[in-house]
Structures are given as structure tokens and as C-alpha cells.
Amino acid sequence: MALTWASLRSGARLGLAASWVKSLVALVNRPLAKRRFRRAVSGAHQLRLHVGAATSRLPGWINTDAYWRASLYLDATRPWPVVPGSVSYVYGDNVIEHLTLPEGRRMLECAFRSLCRGGRIRLATPDVERMARIYLGEPAAADQLLAWHRSAGREAAHPVDLLRIYFTHWGHEAGYLYDFASLSQELRRAGFANVTRCGTGESADPVLRNLEARTDAEASIQLIVEAERSG
What we know:
By secondary structure, this protein is an alpha/beta fold. The chain has helices at 2-41, 101-114, 128-137, 139-151, 160-168, 180-190, 216-219, and strands at 47-51, 62-63, 87-93, 115-126, 193-198, 222-228.
């Protein structure tokens, strides 16, 4: 028992140390990353903004994030420091589900204000309706997803684990999950028009093709939506 408690205390100390290091790095990095972002967009037009990029780097895009060591800092839920109408494309891959509904609405409003007329937004996010259909009546798809989760080290013994993982992993419990109907309504609420659903990597616009990199299992539960600022 003593060894167990010692291990727990050691793990807690390591966790606190890691948290402290991240906080310190964020304190130093954030002002620099904000300035780098402002320089990247200063005087530019027809921008392509990739929000919530984490470590993903899309060529030709301004890859932003709000995490502790982001190179180009952009909090997508606050007014974006860009000239209104200077952005042609906005892309967010598995970002909006980490935001609450009010935060997600603010992100969509910021994107709308930043886009030029005819500018487009593309969002990829988990699909609640698709997951429900798989759980309720698609055993082959359920088995494929369970195997994918197990290969990633997640406990996935029964189909119910698909729902448990879906709603409690990756920070989803702190955000808001969507189906096509709800995300379409939120996009229209922000002012967007011509909302369309796309397949993974597919788009009528060549700029928006082949942006997602997914396994077949993961792609099967993704909701990918595009919309346009028409006015």
C-alpha cells in the first residue's frame, strides 16, 4: 500500500509539474503567437484560415490554434483580428464539438464576419445521428468501430461503449455535439447559406478537397458540412 501511495503521489507531482510548465510556456508564448498571427494576416486578402489546427499544417493555409504552444494564436470564440471580408475560406476539423453551444455560435459569427461574399466555411465534427444509427442497427459498422477503439487502447467490449466513448472522450463532454440538422440550423443562424453535406475529403470546391486524414472507421462517424456567405 505504501508503494502504491508513493506512486500516486509521484504521479500527482509529475502532473502538477507538467501543468505548471504548460502554464509558463503559454504565458510566454501567447503574446508572441498573437503577434505572429497579426503579422500573418496584416494587409492580406483571400486568406485561408485553419482554426483549431493543433499540430496539423495545411499548405497554403494560416494554421491557428489557442492551445498552450500554438505558433499562430487565434481564439475562435472571440472577435478575429482580421479585416472583415479578407478571408476566403475557413476550415475547422473536429473543433466546434469542443465548444459549448454559445461558444460555437460565437465562432460561427466570427467566421461569417471575416469571410468575403462567396467565402466558404467547412467544418468536420462527430455525427451524433450516424453514431446512433450504428449503435441501434448496424452491427458490422459497430464491430469495425469497436476494433478501431481497441487498437487505440480504449476499452471497447460492447456496442454500448461506442456511445460511452463518443460522449465522454476527447473533451466532448465539455462541448456540444451535432447532427446535420442542428449544425445546419446553427450555420444559417449565423447568416450562412447553401449548407451542404460532404464526404471525407470531398468537395465541389477544389480548395476544400482532401483536407481530412482519417481511417475508414473514423471517417464513418464524421459529419462534414460546407456553407457559404452569400451576402
